[in-house]
Amino acid sequence: MTAPVAITLTVNGERLTRLAEPRETLADFLRRDLGLTGTHLGCEMGVCGACLVMLDGTPVHSCLSFAVQADGSAVETIEGLTESAAVTDLQQAFHERNALQCGFCTPGMLVTAQGLLARKASPSREEIRDALSGNYCRCTGYEAIVDAIETVARRRAASREELPA
Amino acid sequence: MKAQAFSYVRPATIAQALDAFAGADGAATYIAGGQSLVPAMALRLQAPELLIDIAHLAELRGIALDEDGGLRLGALTRHAEAHDDPLIAAHAPLLALAAPFVAHPAIRNRGTLGGSVALADPASEFPAMMLALGATIEVAGPEGTRRIAAEDFFQDLYQTTMEPGELLVAFHIPAARPGDRCVFDELARRRGDYALVGCGVKLAMPAGTVDEARIAFLAVGPIPTRARNAEDALAGTRLDAEGIRAAQAALGADLDPQDDDQVPGAMRLHLARVLLGRLLGRLASAP
Ligand SMILES: Cc1cc2nc3c(=O)[nH]c(=O)nc-3n(C[C@H](O)[C@H](O)[C@H](O)COP(=O)(O)OP(=O)(O)OC[C@H]3O[C@@H](n4cnc5c(N)ncnc54)[C@H](O)[C@@H]3O)c2cc1C
Ligand code: FES
Ligand code: FES
């Protein structure tokens, strides 16, 4: 019974059914079975944050879940967040501020940033740093990442104010 | 590394979950949030043949007041809910205060209170806070359900009084009273790291003097530990400098941390004293 089982989930807005071995992590399922390699795998033990995806709207580690556990759920990967333009402003700000170098950590950083700004519209730098405590970056030294997220928080707040009441 | 092959079931009721466990001849493990179990399986520290996913058991959900005014927290309550829920903030504030110190935001979105307490990692925040709050733990097994005081629940390193196959169903926490004051903090090398020492304090101070103190430490020994001598030293005081110093001194009789590869035991005891002094000072100067 360790044989593959059928799971049905919504990935980046598309409902799909696939066979998955129970031992397969959600990260491996996304990367290998669906070819969504924007989800990165570093430590495979919940420490580096490269593998973060949105599961039913909140950031979770795809290395800390088996694909079978996500049966019935909705997953959004960096590909989906990019396509829906949900993180375009974050991506732009990361680019402007040089908040990425090799880019390995970036998909996870963007998911964390998106999750943070959904919970808290105007986080302090301290709160941004706190939110990033589970995301490792070996290149940038974090300062530029905090800057980029802070910039987007301000821009989003400003554009909300401009909306007619 | 990758987990060894296993089969997976997703029961809908406690009865089905217990049956699945009973039928697996000791080779099954429950999975809730998976935030400790999945990495343990990836490292092959654990290799169950059957994984029983309890994350969909409605009986293990819910945050509500009991008939007696206490709080019932389903085992599946997530770390993030402990942080955000208004009933928890009102009746079990120590859980809300400790939640930001548990791991990282994404782990808190998945990890459950039941998983944290069932695992009984001595460096974990929630088990110690269950002690400080005087929680009772409801457990279901083949013979029915029983309730265990948090006091009696933790036995040794990663060991609890739950029998293999028993399910942690819910926590029952006595209602908060007016004049209760709570505070939590910990010392760690980096944000999100497991604490070198952590402490939660709950004082009943309806009229300026300490009627009752409950103080629980984490990461000072094999199980979360109540500091009863320090509690006694505080009782009856007005939380003045003298009372605080007496409580700090009394910790020597409560805690006996051993040397480990992080810090010597004597340093951990020193840090525990420093931390308790800060926490009580904070409570004393709060309006
Ligand atoms: C990088 C990282 C950092 C972390 N840092 C911290 C930290 O600072 N502090 C901290 O406290 N924790 C920390 N954790 C652990 C985290 O809090 C876990 O989520 C929690 O300990 C387990 O909850 P879970 O629901 O994920 O349990 P699972 O991983 O699903 O299960 C853990 C164990 O409990 C058993 N179990 C789960 N639920 C039940 C139940 N209802 N009845 C009976 N048995 C059950 C399982 O069989 C398993 O043996 C960290 C984890 C990671 C990956
Ligand atoms: S790969 Fe998941 S946290 Fe590192
Ligand atoms: S940009 Fe290289 S790890 Fe962050």
From TrEMBL, chain A:
Molecular function via GO: 2 iron, 2 sulfur cluster binding; metal ion binding; oxidoreductase activity
SUPFAM superfamilies per UniProt: 2Fe-2S ferredoxin-like (SSF54292), CO dehydrogenase ISP C-domain like (SSF47741)
Signal peptide per UniProt: none
Species per Swiss-Prot/TrEMBL record: Enterovirga rhinocerotis
Classification via Pfam families: Fer2, Fer2_2
Protein known as: Carbon-monoxide dehydrogenase small subunit
Limits of the 2Fe-2S ferredoxin-type domain: 5-81
Keyword Iron recorded: yes
Key words, A-Z: 2Fe-2S, Iron, Iron-sulfur, Metal-binding, Oxidoreductase
PROSITE patterns: 2FE2S_FER_1 (PS00197), 2FE2S_FER_2 (PS51085)
UniProtKB/TrEMBL annotation, chain B:
Pfam families hit by this protein: CO_deh_flav_C, FAD_binding_5
Domain of life: Bacteria
Start and end residues of each FAD-binding PCMH-type domain: 1-178
InterPro entries xrefs: CO_DH_flav_C, CO_DH_flav_C_dom_sf, Diverse_Substr_Oxidored, FAD-bd_PCMH, FAD-bd_PCMH-like_sf, FAD-bd_PCMH_sub1, FAD-bd_PCMH_sub2, Mopterin_DH_FAD-bd
SUPFAM superfamilies: CO dehydrogenase flavoprotein C-terminal domain-like (SSF55447), FAD-binding/transporter-associated domain-like (SSF56176)
Keywords associated with the record: FAD, Flavoprotein, Oxidoreductase
GO terms of molecular function: FAD binding; oxidoreductase activity
Keyword Oxidoreductase: yes
Protein name, as recorded: Carbon-monoxide dehydrogenase medium subunit
Native source species: Enterovirga rhinocerotis
